[in-house]
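EI: anyone free to look at a 360-residue chain?
SC: sure, send it
EI:
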Amino acid sequence: MPETPTDVAAVPSDAMKTESGLAFKILQAGTGDEKPSSADAVTVHYSGWTTDGKMFDSSVERGEPTSFPLGQVIAGWTEGLQLMVMGEKRRFWIPEDLAYGPVVAGSGRPGGMLCFDVELIGIKAAPKPPADTEKTDSGVAYKIIEEGAGERPKVDDVVTFHFIAKTMDGETVQDSRKEQSPPSMQLAKLPPALSEIISDMKSGEQRQAWLPEPQAPGGYIDAELELVLFKAAPPAPAVPEDVAEVPADAERTASGLAFKVISEGTGKKKPKESDTVRVHYSGWTTDGEMFDSSVTRGEPTEFPLNGVIKGWTEGVQLMVTGEKRRFWIPAELAYGPAVPGSGRPGGMLVFDIDFLEIVS
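SC: here you go
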C-alpha cells in the first residue's frame, strides 16, 4: 500500500499553484515534451487521500493502471494531467471546487480538498476531424454530403432535422431515424455549434459535422445531419401571471403537485401511466422564462407517460381529452433544484398542458 504523504493535510509553502487554485509538486521528472489535451485519453497510476490521511482510492494498490478520457474526470485532474509529460509523477492538492465538492456525510464520496499522487504512463491521442473539411466562421468542421435547395432558415424559424450522433470511434449514441419523428426546435435554441451548421443548410441538404463537445470521448460528436424542413415559429404563449408561485385557489395533490383547470375537456377517459399521449405544452421557470414549448414548434408532442418527470406522469393522468390545465410542479417532481451550468431548468416549474389524445 502506498505511504500516506506527510504533507497531505495542507498545501505546502513550496508547492506551485495555477490560477484555478490547483496546487502541485513534481515528484519525478518525465521524458519528452508531449502533453495530453483535454480530448485525449490517458493511462495513469494514482493514489488519492483526504486531508486526514485516509486513502480512498489507489490503482497502485490494485496493481493495475487506469485509463480514461481526460475530459470525463474531475476538473482538477483534467487541468493537472495536461501539465504533465510521459513518465512524470506529480502530487496534486485539488480544492473541493475542482474535485467532488464539500464533505457530505453519507454521500459515499470523498469531499473537501483531496491529495493525489499521479504518474502519467500513456497518452492516447483523440481522433480528429479529417483535414479536408470545410469550416464555419467559428471553426466547426463539416462536409456537404448532399446539396439542398431553396432558402436557408432564419434564426427564429423552427427547424425539423434528422440527427445521427456518433463518438469519434464510430459508436452511435443517438439516431433520430429510429425515433417516432425527427426533432423540431427553434433554430436559436439549439446548441451553438449545431445551430451554426443548420443555419447554413437548405431543405433536403445533408452534412457530416464534427461538433465540439468536451464531455464526449475525443472532444467531438460526429454528427450526420439532414435538414428536413423549416417554418416560421408560431407566436410564443404569454407568460402566465401566476407563474412565480402557486396561487391560493389552486388545487393540490398529496405529492405536492398543484394545478388549475384552464378549460374543460370533452372526453371522459383518462390515460393510464402506461399509455402514450399527445399534448401541446409550454413550460416556464418561476422567473417567467419559457424553457420549452411544443406550441412555438408548431406541432404537438407524443410520449409515454411513464417516461417523463413525475409531475407530468401524475398530472396528465388527471386529465381528459380536450382539457387544458396549468401545473405547478415542485422541484422533487421535476428536474430537482436549480444547478448553474447544468443546461436544465431547476426548482419549481410551471406548465400549461393541453391534452389532445391517448395515442396507445
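EI: The first strand starts at residue 16 and ends at 17.
SC: 👍
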